[in-house]
């Protein structure tokens, strides 16, 4: 496996990145709509904030937050460190990601399934767990020099923000506010994606259509377009807003909410001019956590529409076929008639 960033600047798009016609991004100029809700977290009426979050999570499974309490300086520093990381030589990146004998820090190109892929995606990524921070940070990259300090601070802020958003969601759904203060959220991970400029953006993708296998995801997407959400049969672009975070409902929260909230499908398109670096904070459960529709949301008139399963079994099924939310996942979560 050679990282994309080690060779991609020399010209044409290799055959192995050309998607079959039905999977190509098609018309790249999709509407960059203002319709994906932008929610002000400093708004002084919490009831109103809860309603906005709930509605956005039902209609789109996506929203952006502003006035979220995370400093702009920290957001900018984190993006700088993220860019510096991917700008290092490939061997340095491999060394910096190889500090845990158990391999908790992962560096890859395209997707984690690279050797099994029929074609590849135009991205590199690094990912690692971040809680508890003092146990995890020793395995993170030490280069760029400020990586641990900056990404460590950032991950603590993301943890606080994700807890706050989940509390709003609990109130909106009618769950106890501490519903997620347990194993369901204890294994959050940071992922830094890098999408270099691409010689043929209409033929390939940065990431295929997928739904995150998370509770929620908080994304710092920066200034460059690329993220698209699938809504009512068409793609809409998520407009980059300075210093906003993009929040999306994960597949697991769709299940826990018994289908009330939508784990929205999304993808990433590339562009020929600008490199794009994004930082995801994925909220994951522990492997042994049981995922099922919340008891408080299920009754005779609202029967459960999903089966209970262990998170680890979901991951196994997801890895088999992550594109377009594969059959193995459907089989695991679907109730027998
Ligand atoms: C992801 C993802 C979006 C982006 O990593 O799951 O959807 O814009 N990323 O990088
Ligand atoms: Ni995603």
UniProtKB/TrEMBL annotation:
Citing just one GO molecular function, the answer is:
oxidoreductase activity
Please provide the record's keywords in A-Z order: Iron, Metal-binding, Oxidoreductase
- Known PROSITE patterns for this protein? FE2OG_OXY (PS51471)
Per the database record, which ranges form the Fe2OG dioxygenase domain?
186-285
* InterPro entries documented for this protein: DIOX_N (IPR026992), IPNS-like_FE2OG_OXY (IPR044861), IPNS-like_sf (IPR027443), Oxoglu/Fe-dep_dioxygenase_dom (IPR005123), Plant_2OG-oxidoreductases (IPR050295)
Q: Which family does it belong to?
A: Belongs to the iron/ascorbate-dependent oxidoreductase family.
Matches recorded under PANTHER family: OXOGLUTARATE/IRON-DEPENDENT DIOXYGENASE (PTHR47991)
Supply the name of the protein. Answer: Fe2OG dioxygenase domain-containing protein
Organism listed in the record: Gossypium raimondii
